[in-house]
Design goal:
nucleus, Serine Threonine Protein Phosphatase 5, Tetratricopeptide repeat, single chain, about 700 residues, alpha+beta, TFIID_NTD2
Length: about 700
């Protein structure tokens, strides 16, 4: 009978007869199952909840995974609860202290995320036992199983803290935190500050860790090995965590090597599930609209923006004809509604094609010239930069909440005349676009006031009529570059907005912020059209795909996600960076994505296959700027280490191994040749690089603020 059993177990424990206790405990477990699944009290010495009929199944489920021993608290009190309906819980206490325990039908407490189901003093033993097992397993399994160390460490620590075993938690942390991979240092720092149950309530990072399952990708052989070990050892505590808090993505085939695993892990929630990168992505480019490209000779006078170039006989231009054929990987032309081309846009396209005809073909033998714009006297205050596509204007966002726009051509910035003056203009005249501008307002610099906090992101519209800025004040503002005034303030984020960008076709724009979501907006809507939710930490940077059907977001959770604008779905999750992501760049052909982070690495991704295909090592600090040259031959990266580096993109993406096996299992083999791909490193004196831009003729423009330290 149960009471006797409990008393005997206690006696054995007091007499330090551990082995006999173990044997009896095992027997009791079988017995318990027959009796109706004995569950254990997670509620400590007095609060052993009895089961109410409704909750019997819940408790039965718990009891199967619960460690079958009575929990010893202070070495002498043990509690066993029965889950057969209507039986009151029985608590065995040292003689002389009689306590009546009432039925407690509320089992929600039992099912809370971290109910204490093991002896807190044994946690270190459990963990070191598993550690010993993994370190002694074969090399091929060891690398894979070592991935368990970090998530188990965090969950076991949080479980101890949650159940208020503070001293055990502290010693557990101190004993094992040094064994974790170096790229988890920042997370461990956050973890070490959580020492009380109350601390856990407000900590978002830890809430996410508890609610989202940590994903591990392990081969079937390694998984079987682990499962067998945990079941033989009856190590239920660890097995519970594996089942409740981890998602193990099992694949058939060879276990992955340490290098292959290291390349892919490091994000807040482990790796991406393989399913996450299976959806079809239309990464091809949309067909360019067809129109005549005027000949190049003797029309220099028609070069200025406003005067329309004279119509000439159409000539097949290399760039114009390139995109006539529909790309098989492109989305349908009308998949998402895009704005109509205006006459001025067509003019701009013509200009673009003319410039492209004079574009320098870059390559390892022909590197671009780099022109560096240094912001002087910015007093550490420069927080964002953007340059127009035609490289005529540059904008800076500053910590003093101002947005400053400069003209970088001899042409000064002018506002449109007042309404009264506009009514006097002859609207039929040829140079009406010139006449509406007010010469008195001409200046090299315009300052835009309106934000009430540092400006973290800026973006020019493709037609250069508008400018976006986003700020710590939680708003995104749209400014007119005709009048240099604010047209709209978009309110949707409640916290700082870290980045914003216009779609390559205008009209749509994206923003991402501290509230961990990215939002898609249209300039004529007050509310966002789409909300992209899924990141576990701040969305730090946002980028449109060249075909505008997708948006990439980089986050402080160390992952990059690709979202479908049409339906808001997440179609790719890329893991591998070991720090928050701060820069993204799509290759001009739309097939590849380059990402840079605080870990100083540039990672290259194949969007169609959902795979990492390269890693460029060289920078020693956060990479804030990435840009592909106009034809995609060169990738430029700019960093806080005061350098611009140029990489051979053609070589990086040739001969990619993207066979089905690699795609299915993630056995990526990164070439160790990032030094061969580095074409040049250019130091500034003391200026971190915050923005890069290739002009239409492939001159590289870089920008940053001189820092006097």
């Amino acid at each position: 009978d149960r009471q006797t059993l409990v008393a005997v177990l206690q006696f054995l424990r007091r007499s330090n007869l551990r082995e006999s206790e173990e044997i009896l405990r095992r027997e009791a477990r079988l017995l318990g199952d027959e009796l109706g699944n004995a569950a254990l009290s997670p509620a400590g010495p007095l609060g052993a909840p009895g089961a109410d009929g409704d909750h019997a199944s819940g408790e039965a489920l718990l009891s199967r995974v619960a460690a079958a021993a009575p929990i010893a608290i202070g070495g002498s009190v043990a509690a066993v609860a029965s889950s057969s309906p209507g039986v009151t819980a029985v608590t065995a206490l040292p003689p002389g202290k009689g306590v009546v325990v009432e039925d407690q039908p509320d089992v929600s407490a039992v099912l809370s995320a971290y109910n204490q189901q093991g002896d807190p003093t044994l946690y270190e033993e459990y963990y070191s036992g598993l550690k010993h097992f993994i370190e002694c397993s074969l090399d091929c399994h060891r690398a894979e199983l070592s991935q368990l160390f970090y998530p188990l460490f965090v969950h076991m620590y949080l479980e101890l803290v949650y159940n208020q075993h503070e001293s055990e938690a502290k010693s557990f942390f101190e004993r094992f935190h040094g064994d974790q991979e170096c790229y988890y240092q920042d997370d461990l720092r956050v973890l070490s500050s959580l020492t009380k149950k109350e601390h856990m309530k407000g900590n978002e990072t830890m809430l996410d860790f508890r609610t989202s399952k940590f994903v591990l990708r392990i081969s079937r052989d390694s998984y079987q090995l682990l499962k067998r070990h945990l079941q033989e050892k009856q190590n239920n505590q660890i097995w519970n965590i594996v089942q409740e808090h981890l998602y193990i993505d099992i694949f058939d085939g060879m276990p992955r090597s340490k290098q292959q695993i290291d390349a892919m892990v490091g994000s807040l929630a482990g790796e991406a599930k393989r399913e996450a990168n299976k959806a079809k992505v239309f990464f091809g480019l949309l067909k360019e609209p067809e129109f005549d490209v005027p000949l190049d000779d003797e029309d220099e006078e028609g070069e200025n923006e406003e005067g329309k170039p004279k119509k000439k006989k159409p000539k097949k231009d290399s760039v114009g004809s390139k995109s006539k054929k529909q790309d098989p990987n492109a989305p349908p032309q009308n998949r998402i509604p895009l704005p109509e081309l205006k006459d001025s846009d067509k003019l701009d396209k013509v200009m673009n094609m003319k410039e492209a005809a004079r574009r320098v073909r870059l390559g390892p033998e022909c590197l671009p010239s780099i022109c560096f714009y240094t912001f002087l006297n910015a007093y550490q205050g420069l927080t964002a930069v953007d340059i127009t596509d035609d490289s005529s204007m540059i904008v800076g966002g500053f910590a003093d909440s101002t947005v400053r726009v400069w003209s970088v051509t001899p042409k000064k910035l002018r506002s449109v005349k007042t309404a009264a003056d506009l009514s006097l203009i002859d609207k039929e005249s040829d140079d009406v676009l010139e006449r509406i501008m007010d010469e008195k307002t001409a200046s090299e610099l315009k300052i835009l006031y309106g934000h009430s906090g540092p400006v973290y992101g800026t973006s020019f519209s493709p037609d250069r009529n508008y400018l976006l800025s986003c700020s710590e004040d939680g708003t995104v503002r749209l400014w007119s570059l005709q009048t240099f005034t604010c047209l709209v303030g978009y309110k949707g984020h409640n916290y700082p907005v870290w980045d914003t960008q216009f779609s390559p076709y205008g009209y749509y724009f994206v923003s991402g912020g501290h509230d961990r979501v990215a939002r898609l907006w249209a300039t004529d809507h007050y509310q966002p059209l789409r909300i992209f939710a899924g990141h576990l930490a701040d969305v730090t940077c946002t980028r449109f795909h060249p075909n505008s059907n997708y948006i990439a977001t980089g986050s402080a959770d160390r992952t990059i996600r690709l979202w479908d604008v049409l339906n808001g779905n997440c179609v790719r999750i890329f893991t591998g960076h070991k720090g928050p992501i701060h820069s993204l760049a799509f290759s001009p052909n739309g097939r590849f994505l380059a990402t840079g982070a605080t870990d100083g690495r540039v990672l290259l991704w194949d969007i169609g296959h959902g795979l990492m295909v390269g890693e460029l090592k060289g920078h020693t600090d956060t990479i804030y700027a990435l840009r592909f040259s106009r034809d995609g031959e060169i990738l430029a990266s700019g960093s806080m280490d005061n350098t611009v580096r140029l990489w051979d993109a053609v070589k990086a993406f040739e001969d990619l191994e993207t066979d089905d096996f690699t795609t299915a299992t993630g056995h990526i083999n990164l070439p160790e040749n990032s030094q061969d791909l580095l074409l040049g490193t250019y130091m500034t004196k003391s200026t971190p690089v915050v923005h890069l831009h290739f002009t239409r003729r492939n001159l590289l423009l870089a920008a940053g603020a001189y820092s006097s330290q």
